[in-house]
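Worked problem 6 (solution included).
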Amino acid sequence: MNQNNDQLEILNKKIIKCKKCPRLSSYIRNVAKLKVKRFSSERYWGKPLPGFGDINAEILLIGLAPAAHGGNRTGRMFTGDSSGDWVAKVLYENGFATKPTSQKLNDGFILKNTFITAAIRCAPPQNKPLKEEFDNCFPFLLKEMSIMTNIKIIICLGKVAYDTCCKLIGIKPSKFYHGKIIHHKKFTIICSYHPSRQNTQTGRLTWKQWTNVFTKAKKILDEIE
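Solution. The predicted structure is:
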């Protein structure tokens, strides 16, 4: 597995240095420079984000993109924002993380049997990436998938992540809905609404709905083993 670790490290360096999308590069730099009042004393990451987690993972979690004042600030996906709070807590409760909070780099939050990535590596304006930006980022996801050969379950957080996943494994997307499960060759895809404030604060995504996704994932893994 040393070779895979080396490959992932090389890939991560490429991702961090990527400037293929001028609109996104400019936006994340400006966000990092201007900041918001509550984080005005912090130094923002302000660069594209690689995925992170267990390289031998059986579960792959795909999100849309880093949050402007979450991952783009902290330097790690789903870290330092409300979506990250939901992700960290549910992973910990199901045995996939070492602690229930993900606040900053080197905070002791370590993923177990799980790898987190995203369709887009830079925070996009209004959370709306352009098609060419998806196209530019897709090879990174494809390479991650080729490195992590043990993936069995792909959890898609939102329709965009689901569509990206379908492209990744070579199937045509069908209707997206929360809790949807697709079995395709060696993969099981589980769809979930994204744990954004827009979904969690309106009740579109409840905690019970959210945790059910991960208990399903555990059950499927148990059945495979």
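Discussion: Helices lie at 2-17, 22-34, 71-74, 82-93, 131-147, 159-169, 197-200, 207-224.
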